[in-house]
Amino acid sequence: MTNDGRLTDIRTDTNRRLITHDSLVDYLSRVGLLTDDDHRIDVIYARVSIHKQQQRGDLDRQIQSLKDFVITKTPKSIEIISDIDSGLNDNRKGLNKLIKLIQEDKVDRIFISYKDRLTRFGFNYLKLICDHHDTKIIAVSTEVLDKSASEELAEDIIAMIHSFSGKMYGLRSTIKKSIKTDD
Hints:
By secondary structure, the protein is an alpha/beta fold. It is about 50% helix and about 15% strand.
């Protein structure tokens, strides 16, 4: 192919041929083997709520489980993004990075264990953003979660109470420290 000019090559000192990147990309595009999606990546997103879960290895197991699944789905380049924070927090470092990549049209598929690993609330907003950028969200859990609307609502209320009580305890601790320093 280099002899007939379809690919451009460079000769090394030992007379080996090295095909240039641009030449290969141009050729693959001409023969229809390179699509616009080839520059997009797959993302594994994993999250645990607290550092204790990370220390127990829950985050690593979640990532490994997702890797095992993704490898069977013809992955592209894979980036792993993780967070150790509440699913109620909408300002997580990893989630913000993921959203930025989606908005830059760099993500083809997002692999998550469950929808709530991505976010506890606002999943449909994230899905709308993903749909607009032709990004697929794939929840890979093998468990069938057949919950009624009232069960999901009860879990969401408990999660909110847990989150707010944690913030109140943190605030109370800050107030106590402030009082001690004033003495």
